[in-house]
Amino acid sequence: MANGNGRVGLMERVKETNEKLWNSQLAESILRPGSPFKQGYSDSPRNRSYVVMNNVLYHLHPVKVKRHGVKLSYTLCLGGLSFFLFIVLTITGIFLMFYYTPTAELAYADIERLSTDVAFGSLVRNIHRWGAHLMVLSVFLHMSRVFYHGAYKPPREFNWVVGVILLLLTLLLSFSGYLLPWDQLALWAVTVGTNMAGFVPVIGNQVKFALLAGVEVSAATLLRFYVLHVLAFPFIIVIFMAVHFWRVRKDGGISGPL
Amino acid sequence: MVEIPESLLRRSAEAKAKALGVPVEQVLAEMKGEGPPVVVEPPADAEEAAPEEVAAPEAEVEEAVSEPEPAADEAEVAADSEPSSEPVVEEAPAAEVEETPAAVATVVEDAPPEPESNGDGGGNGKVAGLVSTRPVVPPTGTPEGVRTQRLLTVVKARAIQNVKAEPTDKVNTWPHLMLQEFGALLLITGLMVIMAVVIHSPLLEPANFNATPNPSKAPWYFLGLQELLSYFDPQIAGVTIPTIVGMAGFMMIPYVDKNPSTRPSDRKFAIVLYSIFLAGSATLTIIGVLFRGKGFNWAYPWRDGIFFDDLKDWVHFE
Ligand code: HEM
Question: Which residues, other chains included, contact B308 with Cβ-Cβ below 8 Å and sequence gap of 6+?
Fold first, then answer.
């Protein structure tokens, strides 16, 4: 459409470029058949299937799910939200790692600096902290919803066991992060928490010693908790999550209607 | 009836031709319904050859196509009431077969003579998968012994995969599930951002090994436990409650709870038990968070203030 000056209008040009872009070899190579981003996508049952099947999404979702499972009131999305919170925590956690040194001398000052010197530092730290609390809560509620549905019954027994391990790992992740600000709250909450671990018979004191890198919380504990928090526990939990999600599907998808 | 791909047909025809000693083309033509049935002596009985790999009841595998036989139809309904569109593997639980011996027997009349083929199909807990490559019920008057199904695979009855496709009411993941998930993500993200803007994370004085705060509290998710520890001898509270009733006990729930039903009305006991656990841990946690003051002694938050530093920068108190 030419405007009064006989020039090509801006909108026209944007539209043209857009079209060229989406039809380029690059876009073609990225988008698989049935992608809703492809030019000329139409809403058909076949394309609805392709959206999932021809996509990395297929690793997470089947093409079709039971109708009752889609009702919000069935899962309350709690398992999915736990996973999403984990992702948010990973992203914000990576941001925080840029500014944090896990030594007794620097840790506290680094956290303090987040709210003064770092752009969005305080916001990201808050999201990370409240997200962690929310994740503990949502994992716990997810477990409760699974229990009330009896969704741990055959063939899903083992996935419940995997779930309990996930709960344990979630608590450990949260707890190991708790020490990192290295303030009075962190130090003494972790002291109280690990003292409870010491009461476990036979292995209690060994576990406590391994966790603390000593008999009580010290500067060495900080490094130990840091490595556990940013590397070891996330690594392990991702593996268990993979098993968990895989089993949800192999056990026949979400459990049946009540 | 399912459309059988050409390549499968050919493979199957080759196998059959080899077994019967006749040309492949002839078998293939017969399978496509273009030629006369191949007539040979009955093949060795599968059930005798391999007792573990028992054939499913005849009615299941013989899906009459060209000439619908009333008897076969009837039996198919009786033995497996769901119309199956899965071409490959069928499950044949023993119980199902035994419940309908009469129905199965009706079919067997039409099927090639075969000793006792009705009663014990799949009875040993294994399931045989068979595929029918062609209308198997021989036209009336055809000599005995034409069996065109063969064993494809043996699937353990309790395999991890759900072998049988059950007709369930399903919807497409896209858009029905994914739009909901997206909504949930937006909601929780919004909630988190609002929380992060309004409530600041606490940062108290730098860690000091020589100044124990009073009270010292664990993170909130362990506060219920800390509360418990304050009632009992630490050996009991620290030992029995968290480890045995806790993690190990929780992992054992599916193996202890033998009640197969998931209907709430059938599992009142389990529900009550879990609800007690929920209410108990919530109560203990709330007490630990709000009602414990100096020396972890009882305190009323409205009178003595809140001793919970996690919310220090948000809830302002003296
Ligand atoms: C990091 C923690 C966890 C994540 C990310 C997670 C994720 C999920 C997801 C996405 C589902 C699909 C259905 C739904 O959203 O409800 C699911 C199902 C399930 N989860 Fe979890 N989960 C976690 C922890 C747990 C825990 C603590 C338990 C139990 C102790 C558990 C037991 C189960 C079971 C048995 C199912 C199958 C439920 C059904 O079929 O209805 N999970 N989980």
Answer: B217, B220, B289, B290
Separation CA B207–CA A185 (nearest Å) = 8
Find the helix or strand (DSSP H, E) in which B129 lies: strand B126-131
Say which residues have a Cβ less than 8 Å from residue B309's Cβ, sequence separation at least 6: A184, A185, B202, B204, B213, B217
Whose Cα sits closest to atom 24 in ligand 1? A163
Mention every residue, 6+ apart, whose C-beta is less than 8 A from residue A233: A169, A172, A173, A176
The CA A162 to ligand 1 mean position distance, Å, reads 9
Cross-chain CB nearest to B197 (options A63, A123, A174): A123
pLDDT in tens, A99-157: 999 999 999 999 999 988 999 999 999 999 999 999 999 999 999 999 999 999 988 99
The DSSP result for A195-251, as a single string, is HHHHTSTTTHHHHHHHHHTSSS--HHHHHHHHHIIIIIHHHHHHHHHHHHHHHHHHT
ipTM comes to: 0.85
Ligand 1 and A158: CB distance under 6 A: no
Distance from A256 to chain B by nearest Cα, in Å?
9
In chain A, residues 1-30 whose CB comes closer than 8 Å to chain B: none
Rounded to two decimals, the pTM is 0.71
The CB of A170 under 6 Å from ligand 1? The reply is yes
